[in-house]
Amino acid sequence: MKISYNWLQGYFDKPLPRIEKVAESYTFHSFEIDEVDGDMLDVNVLPNRSADCLSHRGLAKSLSAILNIPMKRDPLAEDLPDKLPSKDLSVSIKDADLVSRYMCARVEGVKIGPSPDWLREAIEAVGQRSINNVVDATNYVMLDIGQPLHAFDATKIPEGAIAIRRAKDNEKITILGGEECSLTNEMLVVTAYQNDTPLAVAGVKGGVGAELSEETTDIIVESANFDGVSVRRTAQNLKLFTDASLRFQNRPTPELVAYGMRDVLKLITKIAGGEVVALADEYTSPPQTATPVLVSLSHVNELLGSNFTHDEVIGAYERLGFKCIVSGDVITVTPPFERTDILIPEDLIEEAVQILGYDRVKSDLLPDTQTKPDQSQFRGIEKAKDQLVADGFTEISTQSFAKRGDIVLANPLDKEKPALRTSLKENMQEALAKARQYSPRFLPPKEHPKLFEIGTVFLKNIEKIEIETSENTQLPKLEPSTDYKPKKETLGKYRKFSIYPFVLRDIALWVPYGIKSDTVSDLIVANAGKLLVRIDIFDTFEKDGRVSYAFRLVFESMEKTLTDEEVNFCMESVNKAAEANGYEVR
């Protein structure tokens, strides 16, 4: 996430260290920094912290704990205002399993226009584009505390009635920006209840049907919590990845909805005018409460290999806003509502070491094992491999995926190979076809590629190791060996290879009896030019006091695909040299 250093500073009275020091603090405690550019830091927030730290507030809270600098204000610790009546607003949620909470507010009398300079500069500092004051306000609050928001033109929603439902198969919606999307029943849409018109792809992007314009004076602001899995799948299927979908797919707490609504209404009425006249809040499940997690100091130090004290660990938790109750060695920790990632003792242990510093954990060697590892199966496999290599085979290693199999993957990397292989034959055939295609570049004409693979196959109820070869041979046994020592292979010097195809040419010449093949080969090499990369003799016979030598030539360029004209020029040069030496080209 891209954040602004000046925006962060707004959370503190005390001046922060320079931006490079802030980046270093994040890196050595909690988050890697992908880039620092002027006032901007690009923070790599991992999924386990995305629920609360895809926001300036979340990252400011983390920095406060790391540097032990108190925040001057915390939006999520401030009281929420009293709720307004839901007059002229209604919400119907038809798929409660996909919507944890939906809140909307009606604001009348706003004036759509350019954003004030401070707001425009703030969102542009983190790579956002300023659109208008209301849209910028929703984006600003999302970037500030992490709650996605959206604003509709209220006149496009009859009677202020909103419904959230599954889309119909092949239902169409034109999203902001003008692209038309075809939806499926697996996706969720926000609609106008009275006419069932889609207004937005829930959790992903709004539609043009209720887009704000300069004539808009009444708006309905949405703050919601949609199912993360549903949003992620929708974004993937539509290839429509937005700041909102990124946050929803990481499952922020439904409690954040009210804080986002509070902040955005305050900002909109400040910069665009208007009055909040109604508010509706539909909670499809009971409000979530933070669950206490127990951890002992002995568990912390045993797992980390540290020697932290009670006061240090508790101090770290309190700096993070955790409530602690101590009973002997055990600390009962209640995280704040936004920290949905704190579920088990190990989560708390990670928090403690991040704040106190990984440098406090001493490096030490692992204790010696009392028993030697059983390498008999490994040695047996290496023995079989060495035997096949000695017989002229080359080992290949292929993926375990196949077109068909007993076990089908739920989320295959390759849709054309959704199953785990039950045999090595299919991959061997594919590999052999490729090897034959390229073998003239590396093997003499009378040799052919010989391949083998030792790999795991996956049957319905068992996994087992098999051997597959590209041609019939006596297969070595795969059996454990306790004393076999694998052969050590010495790699040759690395040579660059061409990414362009090679070209083959054959040439046969009559030469006087007594002329050696090496002499003819040297002549060809000397006159074929630098594009010749391989030469092999593949036929010899004598007749009428002369000898016929046949060679296969391989031409290749490191820079481009060769044309017939370029190769023909090389061959003409060889032919002329051969004739000049009294040889006859057959």
Features:
586 residues; elongated; 25% strand; five-stranded mixed beta sheet; alpha+beta; four-stranded antiparallel beta sheet
Mean pLDDT score: 93
Please state the CA-atom Rg, rounded to the nearest Å. Answer: 35 Å
Bulk shape: elongated
Q: Classify the beta-strand content into a percent band.
A: 15-25%
Classify the secondary structure makeup into a structural class. alpha+beta
Count of runs of 4 or more consecutive helical residues:
16
Order of adjacent strands in the largest pleated sheet: 4-7-10-11-12
Largest sheet: 5 strands, mixed
Helix content: 25-40%
| Uncertain ranges | none
The span between the termini is 70 Å
- Count the beta strands: 26
Give the topology.
Elements (H helix, E strand, L loop, with lengths): L1 E3 H5 L9 H11 L2 E6 L2 E5 L5 H4 L2 H12 L22 E4 L5 E10 L8 H8 L8 H13 L3 E5 L7 E6 L5 E3 L5 E3 L5 E5 L4 E5 L3 E2 L11 E9 L1 H11 L4 H6 L7 H16 L3 E9 L9 E4 H8 L5 H10 L3 E5 L2 E5 L10 H12 L19 H15 L3 E2 L5 E2 L16 E2 L4 H18 L8 E8 L4 E7 L33 E10 L4 H12 L3 E12 L2 E10 L8 H17 L3 E2 L1
Parallel strand pairs: 4-7, 18-21
Antiparallel strand pairs: 1-3, 2-3, 5-13, 5-14, 6-13, 7-10, 8-9, 10-11, 11-12, 15-17, 16-17, 19-20, 21-22, 23-25, 23-26, 24-25
Helix pairs in contact: 2-4, 5-6, 6-9, 10-12, 11-12, 15-16
